[in-house]
Amino acid sequence: MSDQAQNLRLKVESLRARKETKAIGVISGKGGVGKSNFSLNFAISLAQKGKSVLLFDMDIGMGNIDILMGNTSAKNIVSFFEEGLSIVDVISKGPSGISYIAGGTGLSRIFQLDTDKVSRFFSEFEGIVETYQYIIFDMGAGISEDTVPFILSADEVFVITTPEPTSVTDAYAAIKYLTLQKQDLPFYLICNKAVSDKEGMNTVKRLQQVIQQFLQKDIGILGVLPEDRAVTRAVMEQAPFILTRPHAKISAALGAVLDKYLKRIDDKQDLIPMKAGFMGRLKQIVFKR
Ligand SMILES: Nc1ncnc2c1ncn2[C@@H]1O[C@H](COP(=O)(O)OP(=O)(O)OP(=O)(O)O)[C@@H](O)[C@H]1O
Ligand SMILES: [Mg+2]
How much distance in Å is there from the Cα of 256 to the middle of ligand 2? Predict the structure, then answer.
């Protein structure tokens, strides 16, 4: 291939990637509802469909995504800030070809530290965003100052709740807080640890109605994931259930959630062909503070 043709091909590929990079924030009100297990297995499922995926453990200082896949990484986002590693140095390879950035231990509130370090992060992060079709942010429980810009800039925000009333009210509080900052943030509800499909659907439908009534906001429902011992076993074995138990109830339900998500965004892309990108929104939020 001539140099000119090669350059043109690279340009077309990078334009295509830019258009397709989607940022998904996975959040909850209450802790321990299954965000990390969902994020990891969802990321792997996307990769199995041929998508390039970066999973970013934003539970900074308390990260466990690497433990869930049995790779305790020496490199993580804390080493980016503390040891001056580059962003490429802290990206690891996970199962099914996913890339991931581990959350590390010991340090929190990194984005409130030294502004030079934070600027270096955003400039290096911008350089790699377009390499991926999907970036999934697994957030810590609740909303923190560190994570809020990433959530507000995301293309989609998945809110995970369980059927427990405490989990549902905390999810509502998180959605309300974020909606007051950005009314058109696209939320999608997922009920995890449901004893039955009916119980799970009732939970998310009720929450959807309350949000419509009190926040005048329409939000989507992505589906219900069952309470399944396959998840606890996978955690103990440090091996993602989608790989070791592809036929478990939880794996089938996750597959249905993924199909629904992909169908929705494909539909949406037809309606909204041009939209300001994730990185543009993120920089606007971070640097106007
Ligand atoms: N569908 C499920 N069925 C059974 N157990 C589950 C399910 N999902 C999660 N769990 C259990 O809940 C525990 C917490 O899950 P996970 O670490 O993914 O939650 P989290 O929301 O990321 O927690 P944190 O708020 O601490 O980040 C897991 O160790 C697992 O045992
Ligand atoms: Mg977690």
Answer: 22
